[in-house]
Records
---
Amino acid sequence: MNAEVRAIKTSAEQGLVQAYAGARGTLPGDGVVAALREDAFKRFDAGGLPHRRVEEWKYTDLRALMREAKPLAGPADRRPEAIVDITSVLSGVEPSLIAIVNGRYAPEWSDKNQSDPGVTVLELFAFAGGSPDYRLGQGPGKDDAALGLNTVFMTGGVGLRIKKNAAPAKPIHIAHVFSGKAAAAMYPRSVVVVEPGAHLTLIESFSGPDGIDYQVNSALELVIGDNAQVDHIKIGYDGNAALRVSTLGATVGAKAAYRDFVFTSGGAVVRNQTFVRFAGEGTKGAIGGVSLLKNRQHIDNTLVIEHAAANCESREQFKTVLDGQSHGVFQGKIVVEPHAQKTDAKMMTRALLLSEDAEADNKPELEIFADDVVCGHGATAGALDPGLKFYLMSRGISEKESEALLIEAFIDETIEQIAHEGIRDALKFAALKWLGTRG
Amino acid sequence: MLLEVKNLHVEVDDKKILNGLTLSVEKGQVAAIMGPNGSGKSTLAYVLAGKDNYKVTEGDVLLDGKSILAMAPDERAAKGLFLAFQYPVEVPGVATMTFLRTALNAQRKTRGEAELSTPEFMKLVRETSKHLGIDQEMLRRAVNVGFSGGEKKRNEILQMAILQPRLAVLDETDSGLDIDALKIVAEGVNRLRSPKRSMIVITHYQRLLNFIVPDVVHVLAKGRVVKSGGKELALELEAKGYAQYADEAA
């Protein structure tokens, strides 16, 4: 008799297994996609949700944090309010909008005039089936457990292509929104291929109503060609009860410029996973982020930056502001592969604790297999400097306003990295709004 | 009387620093406070401004006859108290201009006055900074970040000139300044002398008092005022040193 040893499944894990059994026949995509799903499901069925004994998930124990699996979200029957909210945040930017509602591409709520000749937008599975130069699910981070779960259920999204040497006039905004009245789960997935020499400013946002514990497991695959320039800005504006795990897998070609920025202030439990692989020589990358936490929020930014080619430079700078009983996590790993000589990588992470009850975990890691590199990292965590606060207050500025000025300065230093002025201003304003809600 | 310090006892980290300090400053008066290192000069400045961790165990500080000890630093500032720091701190990320405007408007708001419009404010800053040799580029930089010692001290006087306090406490404003910088700072201070404004000029050396001539001089030793006199007292101290007061305060 064969006895297979398995961990007992939690109710969320059982729910996910049942959900897949029920949906497997109706989930979209061709035979290749179905095979990807089956394979990912087998891995999930064996390993379950990632938990604290898995090194990468030590500080964000998804098995404990995800109590139950919500039913898969159905298509929206009305224009979601969250689209209005998130577009108002970006009103000064006027990007071209691609709406992903309840985990599906919603062309009816997207901008009609995607007429830029350098841009094509297709529904994800139509794109994946018709792009010989691209294979779904092969990018950096492909073995990650959360990405695997997205692969099991991925319900849709877009495939976006920026043609060779094109430079769309407006930023493109992929807005993920939830419009339901009761909690549900969404598994959106999108692919963006930026061909050589093209320029793109891509905003990716997540939003939904407060008070509903909806779940999002999203993934974005980004393929950046040689000599391309890409700015990717991710805005986490979820409702206050939402649980979201988002995975970005970016492959960057030679002599490219890639700037990635993650801003998160919403959601109850959020994990932003950023996997970047510098695959071509002579590329410059800047990966940054700001997380603003209060109450019992849990926000995790986890990076894995692989330097797989020589002569690339990367800068990582993350800031976390924590109030209430919140928990912030930063994990940053820089891997320099043996042939990636002359790599120049520097990572800095700083946490500002505004409350005695907040907790910040910072875990920088370097794995260097080349011998001619410049790599470094630094991490700090601390409260506001009382000496600075006293100086401001001695000039007549109230305690609250003094704190706000100092926090704003702390945040702005990192937001300044965003090249697009309108997006920079929008996020500075969002940060100010967050400061205004401090008790 | 604008300021009355009555029998003030202050501890810092359980160490007694001020031991029954009594001092009065009249309206419009410039009072110099001199004393050896460790006599409590800077402690007095910080206690007046309301810094944390300075524990008043006895005595009182009255401004216009009312105790200010329970007030937060910003409330004291709005009442017209200003401290020019011995070591002005660097505030990364906060532009000097933003800082000045926020401070001025916060004080005006607390006093029930209208905020200055941006053009009014810009004009005020431009005119005031010109006298102090502060250029516009410096005002765009973060507060004191990358400023030289002299620039930091000039920035303190600029803040004082903009905020127009009724009582300015200058804590060793001369420290770290060469003679040219000292002259600029002293001229800036003298320009602000007025029958409506009192000043406490804290210094270790008599040199500053050649440029900012005080109405009275108080000698501080071991946490209390041990002698008061006219401006000639400063010259006497310069000649004889502080050793003669070592026993008197004990």
---
Amino acid sequence: MSRERIARVLPKPQLQSDQTTPHPDVEQRFGTLDMQALQRTVGNQQAQRTLRRMHSTTIQRVSTPPTQADQEAEAAQTQTLLQAAHREMLSHSDQTVRNTAKLFQSNGTVPQRMAYSPMTLRSDSAALVAAGTLSAASAAFFFYGNTQNNQHQFGPFTGGTIDRTGALETILVRGRLADGTWQTHEQIIGTFVHEASHLLVASYGQHPGTTTDASSFDRYKDEFRSYWVEPYGHAWNNEKDGDKKARAIRTFMIANYPDLQTPYNNNAAFKAQVDTHMRPDGYNLSNNPNLDLLFTLIGGGVAGIDMTLSHIVTQMNPTERAEANNSPLINQQITKYKDADAEARVHNALRFPQTNELAHELNPANSPRMSALLEAIALRDVMRIQESFVALTSAERGELVMNEAVMLFVTRQIPDKRLRACMYAMLTTGNLRQFVAMDNFINACIDAWVVLNGGDEQPPTTTPDFLRTALKAVAYEARLSLYKLVEDARQQYVDALPAPINQRVLEALREGNEPR
Amino acid sequence: MSTAQVFDGLVHIQLPDGWSLTALDGQPPEQFYCSYDLPDQQGVFALLLQPAPGQGPIELLRFEQSMQATVTIIHQTTEELRYRSHRLVPSHTDQNPSIGRTEHREQISEELITARFWIGSTRTLRASYRVVLDAPAKLIALLDTTIASVELQGEL
């Protein structure tokens, strides 16, 4: 049977020989929009052939379907296109675009967050449409990745989807669209930013109604947010006036999302919600991988607090810390620790420093050795603190002596007064031995308190020798730091000694002399 | 109703007024498929002519399985199959040149499928329809009548 004979599928009364006047049925069935849709579905040549069938019994010989090799080559070309767009994103002028690009790759301690992959029309799509009693106007079959070894049914105009079956959520993008044109870099970048925003906000549990009710206000907010951050493809992309931008997005969505159009036109309460939603909401509007990982790490509970603190101190910049610190979602997440100390440590880490100026003061030369020390301090890991301090250059240790930002950092990060006193002793002298000397002195204070309170001599008149010896090993700068900078430690360990011993030791701290 | 001659006159079928069958290109060699899209996106009516053995009820159910659909069989013989298909359509985007990208949330597709098979020595014919589950009973009756009107004018 020749393919020309297919023309006979039309009922004879509808066949016409006049090729200039469309049969009324053509207008009725296809109309202008439907004809465009058909063209996009099956290509212009096919659409023209279909029209010809409607007009005439003279039919052109049809083309053969593409081969699997053809379509796998198209997938490879799409992969190349996606990679090129990704590279462009990494050096893009827009911060959100750069952030989104980083989500697709690991970066130091920040793991890859999501992936992308081609989505391509299967070579046997038309045969599968036939197998399923489907319409080419509403169904087409695609494969994901580079090999045609899987099949997924969508509409013929589908531009992409999300695959959640793998280890990473994968944004699937069709490089070549239904009309045969290839997507531009800008279109792909827009898709990546838009879809990444959806994936991230969903992972935070925000806008939950968007997955259960396509007509919900959550859905509206979810789409609004993604369109807001998307850099290309819409008239509002360069609109500086936020209110105008919000109204433009609203107009577009109500016109093109039937799920939202219906409640907007029929539900006054829904309309009021939509009309007053003028800015995007939710955590991490900039698709920032550091903010994203922070949410995950906090969600890991107290057991993972060291990783959380390390991430905050070493990876996040002041702007990111400030955004996280001001986020109701992050604050809510922190309360899930149900551990006051853990909550305080994360809050402290997020609150300091919150400006680039302070961050610069904390580590003026951006030294990796200094970063390691700050991380160890945040983790309150004594061994790492000592090791990283020793690893500093002598110049860096010298700068630390006068670095008020670091002192403040220590105060914020280390609530344990004894450890903090030791830290100050080390930092103000630039000498690790003073850490040990202060620790020994505090031990001696505790022992002295026991001895003096339990002795027969009331009040005591003699300062124990072991206390004198311990104090003698503490340098003057370290003594002063205990006296003035770690007052809570001084009060607990020195002020609490029985009088007049406490006054003698305080004087020795203040004046640097031998205690009487 | 009017009589349509399909597949070079091999098949005569009574089509309701206003219906017309359109061929779909891109089929494997010696396979022919033509269909009519029902109004208001209610579904599709189709004829499929394939080299034997072609698709039978079991192969059609396998197809549904390959689409991760859940199937409820209502009626099945070697020549007829009627079932409901329940399938999750993942969220996806559409690329419309005139308006750009729009998004569609995950949704459930529920459809009623009826197929009748004529299995010959060299070719297999299938007349079938797929409609949304809430399609009017009147439409389903019309589709059943249309399938019943198929007359073979020669050997398969």
